[in-house]
Amino acid sequence: MREALLFLMLIATGFVASGLIASLYMLLSGQREYSPKAETDAGRLAAVGLTIFTGPSVLALGAFRRQDEPPPPGYRIVILMLVALWSYVLGLLVVSIALKLPSPF
Description:
The radius of gyration is 16 Å and the shape is flat. The protein is mainly α.
């Protein structure tokens, strides 16, 4: 039970971190949706690095956005499983970085 709760909290941590980074990018760039446009090699590398951290929230928003035709059966379930796994890995990274920071207390 404790491991399942820890697993869910890591997924939530990764998903929230992803959403915060994507929202911050959209706020700073003035765009209404996440679409980094890069013209140089360094810009493309930065866009890939940014997408690694914003991927779960962008993928989940894209999967549940209203579409003209319904998606194939099981599409959203597969997307949610991928988002959960990606968020778990990102949550592990965020928590491990947070544990290495010195405590202010």
